[in-house]
Amino acid sequence: MRIDLHTHSTASDGTDTPADLVRNAAAAGLDVVALTDHDTTRGHAQAVAALPAGLTLVTGAELSCRIDGIGLHMLAYLFDPEEPELSRERELVRDDRVPRAQGMVAKLQELGVPVTWEQVARIAGDGSVGRPHVAEALVELGVVDSVSDAFVPDWLADGGRAYVGKHELDPFDAIRLVKAAGGVTVFAHPLAVKRGQVVPESVIGELAAAGLDGLEADHTDHDGAARDRLRGIARDLGLLVTGSSDYHGSRKTVRLGAYTTDPEIYGEITRRATGAFPVPGAGGSARP
Predict the structure, then answer these.
(1) Which residues pair with 65 in a beta bridge?
(2) I need a labelling partner for 90 at 20 to 30 A (CA). Which of 41, 42, 100, 105 fits?
(3) Are 136 and 173 in contact (CB under 8 A)?
(4) What digits encode the pLDDT tens for the residues 196-218?
């Protein structure tokens, strides 16, 4: 089995629609794919409707969190999307995205970059606007060569010249809320130092004690040493280890299935979840 547990669609900051994402996942030879858009489950219904036979969908979200001034992302799998407290927190994060992006546009304009809110809104489309959309605007303007190049201190990295904060969950609250909604939590790309400051290992231990289920080790932003270190931390703390592409369509160069999760780990995630269940493909809708 080939299992990719971290992807994004146009419901947040990917470039594939949810329907095209599951079709592309099947074409890439995946058996299981998780749709984990940022702070939203809005793409799930479209993905389910288009799900090809032979592909299983894991519903989820990537929750925006912050602790001691350090941003981190929490992958949440198979939770009840209607659970009121978790739903309310996701709405708070999403509602803060537009003023935050507008604030980044204003800062960039102060730095002499001719970006406009209209440009960023066009790039975001119906998705939940975020930093990658602002980054793509910088690519369009020729300010940087790639979206990744925009996530540096000169531009949009945490604490960067054009950075603006937003409402984010405390990760301990995120774990509590996801658990209460019957879901499973995995700390996304915890040692991705190229993205900015990462939490110390002591915090990972505290998160594990609070109920964290796993660590995403195999990821494009982790080199071999980071992957080995995360496996060691997971072994010491009794955590699951996952691998994923963190696919964003054409917005990033990584492809679906670039990194995958062991089937036994996937099985354990599904056993722990009580809020929702994986959805097997039944043929899906025809490609337009």
Answers:
(1) 72, 169
(2) 105
(3) no
(4) 889 999 999 999 999 999 999 99
Supply the angle between the helices 97-110 and 117-124 in degrees, to the nearest 10.
Answer: 140
> Half-sphere exposure of 190 toward its Cβ, with a 13 Å CA cutoff?
31
The residue assigned the tokens 């937003």 is 166
**pTM of the predicted model as reported, rounded to 2 decimal places:** 0.87
Q: Can you tell me which residue has the tokens 């780990």? A: 265
Q: Which residue has the tokens 């369509």?
A: 249
More confident site: 282 or 187: 187
139-180 tens-digit pLDDT: 999 999 999 899 999 999 888 999 998 889 999 999 999 999
> Is 4:219 a contact under the CB 8 Å cutoff?
no
- What is the spatial distance between Cα 134 and Cα 119, in angstroms, rounded to a whole number? 9
Neighbours of 202 (CB within 10 A): 8
